[in-house]
Design goal:
Length: 153
């Protein structure tokens, strides 16, 4: 593995961690602001003002709960790119090693491993996307259910 590849991977990893940290802080700030606005005195409040405050707090909570899923997705992308680059590098090195039968077997094994990893990677991305979408829609549906229950009382 080359120094440049490892340095690039670490840089991408740290960049993803930084973006995740900023997203966490932004989501936490939004929750604090929306919840403090919802609890701000000024009663009696009009029905639409109560609804607006509750909606803001619920959406901020949904956003906060989505952060770990987005963070995991970003880190998985960095890992997938690193493994693909590592495999390409190893295959490139083996191409120049000659035509000895043992090198041919090793190349085939690496190619098979690369294809398998690519298929599993794609499947895990699809599962992650489905889970993230389902989780997001479930929280929105729960918020809508709460709004419906609020209006009935």
């Amino acid at each position: 593995m080359t120094y440049q590849m490892m340095a690039g991977t670490l840089a991408a990893y740290f960049k993803a961690l930084d973006a995740n940290q900023r997203r966490w802080l932004d989501a936490q700030r939004d929750v604090y602001q929306s919840w403090s606005a919802a609890l701000r005195p000024g009663y009696p409040l009009a029905e639409n003002e109560i609804q607006r405050r509750l909606d803001g707090a619920l959406l901020a909570g949904v956003s906060l709960s989505q952060v770990p899923l987005d963070s995991q997705h970003r880190l998985m992308q960095v890992t997938e790119k690193w493994v693909a680059a590592l495999n390409r590098d190893m295959l490139d090195r083996l191409e120049h090693e000659g035509l000895h039968p043992s090198m041919s077997v090793l190349r085939q094994a690496l190619q098979l491993g690369d294809a398998s990893y690519g298929a599993l990677s794609k499947a895990s991305r699809q599962v992650g996307h489905f889970a993230s979408t389902s989780f997001s829609s479930a929280t929105v549906n729960a918020a809508r259910g709460m709004q419906h229950a609020w209006k009935q009382h």
